[in-house]
Design a protein that fits this description.
Strand content: 5-15%
Distance between the termini: 23 Å
Low-confidence stretches: 1-7
CATH superfamily: Uracil-DNA glycosylase-like domain
Structural class: alpha/beta
Mean pLDDT: 92
Largest sheet: 5 strands, mixed
Strand order of the largest sheet: 2-1-3-5-4
Shape: globular
Length: about 210
């Protein structure tokens, strides 16, 4: 394949389109201009070819230093879950969030602040654009904010361990891996998580089989 062929290759074109979207996301300052954040540092990572997309709540403080989603302590726990589901560190899926900037610490000091509805609304078009371009077949909804966006407002115990078909994609809810969450202290909830990871494993294996055909 010569240079001209590569320029016309659909895969190359898709990756360039996603790279341009990421550049626009990283340049976004809408929440700063609206007075919700003191500064903007949007974070996102992934490729157009990723068939699995992880959607969290928002980056944490560690992510500001690394520039990569899910790179703090909660992210390390999430990656351990992914390994249990058959997805290793070398094959991390597309990683994004409902809002793209670190929202700051909660007033109580326990964990990060939950982004407000206006912040979520300002950021919604970026996630819509990511979904439209990447077209993932599996969405891993990490935490209540992501679950509410795609599944509705429901207790974690009602959805973790289940999946739902949404058009041509599968929704798989997961609890937030933050150490501030006590949800997994309950043995029944830990079993729900194990069921969820088995669902992730089956979905990822199904994608591998499809691509091999």
């Amino acid at each position: 394949m010569n240079v001209g062929d590569r320029a016309r290759d659909p895969a190359n074109t898709s990756e360039r389109t996603v790279a341009r979207l990421h550049a626009r996301i990283r340049a976004c300052t809408k929440c700063v201009e609206a007075g919700y954040l003191p500064s903007a540092f949007p974070i996102v990572a992934g490729k157009a070819s990723d068939r699995v997309m992880i959607i969290g709540q928002a980056p944490g403080s560690v992510e500001i230093t690394t520039g990569l989603p899910f790179s703090g302590r909660a992210g390390a726990q999430l990656r351990r879950w992914l390994v249990e589901a058959g997805i290793d560190e070398a094959h991390l899926p597309y990683r994004t969030s409902i809002t793209k900037c670190f929202p700051g610490k909660a007033a109580s000091g326990a964990g990060d602040r939950r982004p407000s509805p206006p912040e979520i609304a300002l950021c919604a078009s970026w996630l819509d654009a990511e979904l439209a371009l990447v077209r993932p077949r599996v969405l891993l909804l990490v935490g209540t904010l992501a679950i509410e966006r795609f599944w509705g407002r429901v207790p974690l115990s009602d959805v973790v361990g289940k999946s739902r078909v949404d058009g041509d994609r599968i929704l798989i809810p997961l609890p937030h891996p933050s150490g501030a969450s006590r949800w997994l202290n309950d043995s029944e909830n830990r079993e729900r998580l194990r069921r969820a990871l088995r669902i992730v494993r089956r979905a990822a294996k199904g994608l591998t089989l499809q691509s091999a055909q």
